[in-house]
Specification:
Elements lengths: L17 E7 L9 H9 L5 E8 L4 H13 L3 E11 L1 H5 L5 E4 L4 E4 L10 H23 L5 H8 L4 E4 H46 L20
Parallel strand pairs: 1-2, 2-3, 3-4, 3-5
Antiparallel strand pairs: 5-6
Helix pairs in contact: 1-2, 4-5
């Protein structure tokens, strides 16, 4: 059994840590990366993570768990790619806020591999599910990296081998798209805050202009008198 990947000790800086993760070789089963996931999720906004990738790919489910952890992390993530980045590796490279690619690095995108066993109807149901799942998943992961047509070709079985220069351009496009979406989201939040503030101000002005109703005076009750026989 392969040794579990190690998390290098962060450098000692006050209130900020620099973590270094090395993915060298196949993406193994998720239990090998428990320490990584804990480190990634608990990294603070002042922290940074260098994520080195040189992998032929591996478990897509492990890749999903790692990608989820990176998405939840507050740290700045720099992805450093060298050698080969294939299959699940190309999914994991998309987690970066910034990227470094060594000259000569090769990238390969393809559909996942798997198998099924069981009764005929069970295999049919699973294959139908996985076809829909893989379509939604790959379009989500590779959006802004591959074109929609290229993703559909991957789903139909085509392998894409791309050089470092091509992928560097695509990852630059990914960062620009993310930045644009973030700016649009921030603009929407600011607009919602402004609209809420304007509504509160308008309500306050309206209330101030309305004449205040004087409280109605209560008539004194008449004292009941006893009737004399």
């Amino acid at each position: 059994m392969n040794d579990m990947p190690k998390v290098l000790e962060p450098s000692s800086r006050p209130k900020a840590f620099h973590h270094v993760l090395h993915l060298k070789g196949p993406v193994e089963s998720c239990e090998y990366y428990a320490d990584w996931i804990d480190t990634i999720r608990n990294a603070g906004p002042e922290d940074s993570i260098d994520f080195h990738i040189n992998t032929p790919g591996g478990s897509v489910y492990t890749a999903i768990e790692l990608m989820t952890a990176f998405a939840e992390s507050q740290a700045q993530v720099n992805v450093i790619i060298s050698g080969l980045c294939a299959s699940a590796g190309t999914m994991l490279m998309t987690v970066g806020d910034s990227f470094e690619i060594a000259p000569g690095t090769t990238f390969m995108f393809h559909n996942y591999s798997g198998g099924t066993i069981g009764k005929g109807n069970e295999m049919h149901v699973k294959m139908e599910y996985e076809r829909k799942w893989s379509k939604d998943f790959l379009h989500s992961v590779y959006e802004h990296v591959l074109t929609s047509e290229e993703i559909d070709q991957v789903l139909d079985g085509r392998d894409f081998w791309l050089p470092a220069e091509d992928v560097a351009e695509r990852l630059t496009n990914l960062i620009e798209k993310r930045q644009m979406l973030m700016e649009e989201a921030m603009a929407e939040i600011e607009n919602a805050i402004k609209e809420a503030h304007d509504a509160e101000l308008e309500a306050a002005v309206k209330e101030a202009k309305e004449p205040k109703k004087k409280p109605a005076k209560r008539k004194p009750r008449k004292k009941a008198t006893k009737k004399e026989d």
